[in-house]
Amino acid sequence: MSTLIYYLRHAQSKPDPSVDTSNWPLSELGYQQAEKLADVLSISKFAKIYSSPYRRCLETIAPYCKKHSLTYQSVDELKERKLVASYNRKNYQEVHRKSWIYFSFALPGCESSKDAQKRIMTSLKDIAREHPGEKVLISGHGQLLALLLKHINPNFGFSDQRRLFNPDMKVFKVSADQITESQAPCALQSAVKEIAVPAVKF
Fold first, then answer.
1. Predicted pLDDT of residue 202
2. How far out from the chain centre does Cα 162 lie?
3. In this structure, what CATH number is given to the domain that contains residue 30?
4. 47-65: pLDDT as tens digits
5. Most exposed: 44, 78, 129, 139, by fewest CB within 10 Å?
6. How many other C-beta atoms can be found within 10 angstroms of the C-beta atom of residue 105?
């Protein structure tokens, strides 16, 4: 039995080279988007809410959870992949592009596209196993979302992932042996799109 996983990419964040990427906050616009999501996300009912432990993902769902007295579970396997040891915009962009050309490439102590893709796919299947036939919400990251889309459509490339939004939402049908993207009309996806903006190019 498949699980419907609503994968929400976080609201617009504010990259800050002076702090670890895990602690990047939302931007001023991002906080406004999160407040709007408090109502938008109520369009659907979820059996469980999961989130990356990174600050920008937690802040994205915080107003929703607070307004509706909901709880979430932070899952380390949902964290964003590490591309560089320390953030530098030019270096980050170069490494990011290379990681899409060479899927097994990774700098020392960092994670390749291949390994990150395997991690997020395993995490989704683990979550689906806990919620057969239910709907689940995940607050996660753009790179992992893009790698999921790459798994489903091998033609999905670097330029495609650069066109994702903040926030963004994709709905996946997940079973023990398969992950596919739902093509059914989704009011929640449409509502998220209305408050989204082009993603910040790190």
1. 59
2. 14
3. 3.40.50.1240
4. 999 999 999 999 999 999 9
5. 129
6. 14
pLDDT at 2 over 90: yes
Separation of alpha carbons 197 and 168, rounded Å: 9
What is the Cβ-side half-sphere exposure of residue 31, based on CA atoms within 13 angstroms?
Answer: 6
> Do the domain assignments include residue 96?
no
In a domain, 94, yes or no: no
Range of the domain at 134: 3-80+113-198
pLDDT reported for residue 86: 80
CA dihedral 107, 109, 112, 115 (to 10 degrees): 160
Phi/psi of residue 111, nearest 5 degrees: -120, 130
Place of tokens 């498949």: 2
- How many domains in the chain? 1
107 falls within a domain: no
DSSP 44: S
* Tokens representing residue 49 in the block: 């809410």
Helix (H) or strand (E) holding 7: strand 3-9
d(CA 18, CA 15): 9
Tell whether pTM > 0.90: yes
Q: What confidence tens digit (pLDDT) does each residue in 155-188 have?
A: 999 999 989 999 999 999 999 999 999 988 899 9
Instruction: Report the alpha-carbon distance of residue 26 to residue 14 in Å, rounded.
Output: 5
